[in-house]
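Hello, quick one for you while I still have it in my head. I'm working through a protein record and want to make sense of it properly. Would you mind checking whether the tokens look sensible for this chain? I owe you a coffee for this, so here goes:
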Amino acid sequence: MVVGFVLMNISPLHEYEVFNILSKFPEIIELHPLFGEYDLLAKIQAEDYESIGEIVIKKIKTINGITDTKTLTGLRFD
């Protein structure tokens, strides 16, 4: 398993709608509203890095109201 973090910019007045949609994705294990440069932070858990990319491109970026994303990937130290 790998973990990815997605920082998102949301267009005004879409924050709650986007949060509610993302909170239903089983791959998103944490979701946090932010103040500052980004509006939301999602923690994604997937089988591999390619899966994280597919989730971001095919699921997250297609949501109306998301204007920009930045994806960070990392390893789990168990």
